[in-house]
């Protein structure tokens, strides 16, 4: 039984620090934008001025969007890609409405001055004013991405198709910035305004290049990952062991995941998100997957020595966010892999509740039993049909009477996760003690 003392929780919770920092960045830059807008003067009618203001705020949100999806390690470890992606989605819709308002207000304002119908005025602006046509194309691209990102459309698109469509956002960003440079009144109003916007866009685009290009390339060149072993766990579950150089310097933690590319002829272009199913030990990494799609099913045929390109580690589902000495882990489906890794790393008394339809569906069950015994943890396997949810507050409270005094880590299918989160609230578990990983990789 483990006797290690859990680390003391930080004075300021990492998630709160990161969330506050992002809010401060957005609000502070919005204040700067408003000041620069006012300094540029008001020598235009009200509609044109509204158009300029909504355009400037839209440009700010566009830069903020890039920050949210840059996959910067400091933000990702504290907030998680699922939360950042959710914010990216809602900021994106706000951005789209701002840019539509910018187009409508600006066109209507200039139409009122020229006495042309708004559509004719838009055509005139696009064909005679430098940079306006670029803005029209950018807006059309963003509307297309917004339509593809709507829930009804997103459910019908394969991830690869959706991701390809989403890449047009970067082209829209470049076109929008070119438009701002060419005709932005506030951009050219003073050297200070010009320097500010160049710095803002430079930081936003630089963050994307660092987080999504430079850092993955550098880490893979440094660690040179290869498949070390492929171990069938059952008829439809396989574990892949990956080794490389200097893995003790790879900042991976139990509970995190990577985007894995196995560099074979038929798989090199596919990036699949798989969590670590064992705590990193500085010598190897392990992922475990069930054959649910073409990507996971083909893992069984990987050969030892296959080169691996991994992006990550990603995710905030780690012990970094602990606030209490003891923990409750709840897992279902593929969620058992990061939870199994957490069980290996967490100190203090741990209770693991594993939700499956039938016990024979429980992945890595023998391994979990051995690990729970070695660490003095409690393991409960809860079975039942998928239509039923036996993890209501009464049942969960019976299994773990002191749940409100524990950190609760939940990972699994959306229905199960939602049910456990409701149960935790009804059992009086404070919100800052609840940590959920949602499989919602986008962006």
Automatic annotation (TrEMBL):
CDD domains: FNR_like_3. One of its GO terms (molecular function) is 2 iron, 2 sulfur cluster binding. Its cofactor is FAD. It comes from Saccharothrix syringae (Nocardiopsis syringae). PROSITE patterns: FAD_FR. Residues 220-320 form the FAD-binding FR-type domain. Coiled coil: none annotated. Keywords: 2Fe-2S, FAD, Flavoprotein, Iron, Iron-sulfur, Membrane, Metal-binding, Oxidoreductase, Transmembrane, Transmembrane helix. It is found in: Membrane. PANTHER family: 1,2-PHENYLACETYL-COA EPOXIDASE, SUBUNIT E (PTHR47354:SF8), NADH OXIDOREDUCTASE HCR (PTHR47354). The keyword Transport does not apply. The chain crosses the membrane at residues 21-40, 46-69, 90-112, 132-153, 165-183, 195-215. It is a multi-pass membrane protein. One of its GO terms (cellular component) is membrane. This is Oxidoreductase.
């Amino acid at each position: 039984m483990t006797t290690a003392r859990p680390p003391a929780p930080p004075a300021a919770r990492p998630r709160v620090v990161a969330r506050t920092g992002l809010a401060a960045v957005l609000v502070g830059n919005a204040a700067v934008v408003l000041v620069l807008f006012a300094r540029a003067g008001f020598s235009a009618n009200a509609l044109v001025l509204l158009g300029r203001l909504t355009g400037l705020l839209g440009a700010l949100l566009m830069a903020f969007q890039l920050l949210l999806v840059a996959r910067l390690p400091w933000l990702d470890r504290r907030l998680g890609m699922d939360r950042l992606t959710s914010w990216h989605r809602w900021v994106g819709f706000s951005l789209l409405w701002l840019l539509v308002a910018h187009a409508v207000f600006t066109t209507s304002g200039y139409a009122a001055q020229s006495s042309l119908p708004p559509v004719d005025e838009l055509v005139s602006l696009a064909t005679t004013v430098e940079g306006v046509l670029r803005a029209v194309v950018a807006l059309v691209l963003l509307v297309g991405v917004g339509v593809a990102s709507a829930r009804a459309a997103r459910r019908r698109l394969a991830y690869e198709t959706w991701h390809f469509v989403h890449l047009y956002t970067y082209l829209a960003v470049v076109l929008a910035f070119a438009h701002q440079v060419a005709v932005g009144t506030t951009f050219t109003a003073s050297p200070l305004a010009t320097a500010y916007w160049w710095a803002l866009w430079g930081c936003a685009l630089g963050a994307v290049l660092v987080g999504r290009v430079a850092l993955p390339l550098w880490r893979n060149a440094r660690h040179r990952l290869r498949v070390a072993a492929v171990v069938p766990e059952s008829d439809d579950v396989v574990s892949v062991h990956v080794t490389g150089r200097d893995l003790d310097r790879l900042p991976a933690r139990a509970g995190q995941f990577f985007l894995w590319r196995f560099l074979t002829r038929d798989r090199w272009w596919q990036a699949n998100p798989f969590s670590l199913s064992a705590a990193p030990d500085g010598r190897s990494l392990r992922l475990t997957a069930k054959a649910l799609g073409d990507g996971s099913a083909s893992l069984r045929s990987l050969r030892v020595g296959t080169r691996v390109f991994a992006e990550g580690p990603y995710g905030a589902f780690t012990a970094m966010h602990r606030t209490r000495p003891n923990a409750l882990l709840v897992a279902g489906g593929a969620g058992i892999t990061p939870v199994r890794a957490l069980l290996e790393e967490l100190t203090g008394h741990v209770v693991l509740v594993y939700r499956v339809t039938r016990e024979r569906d429980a992945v890595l069950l023998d391994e979990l039993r051995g690990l729970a015994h070695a660490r003095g943890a409690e393991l409960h396997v809860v079975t039942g049909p998928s239509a039923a949810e036996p993890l209501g507050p009464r049942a969960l409270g019976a299994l773990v009477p002191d749940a409100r005094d524990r950190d609760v880590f939940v990972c699994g299918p959306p229905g199960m996760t939602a049910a456990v989160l409701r149960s935790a609230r009804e059992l009086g578990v404070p919100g800052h003690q609840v940590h959920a990983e949602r499989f919602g990789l986008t962006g």
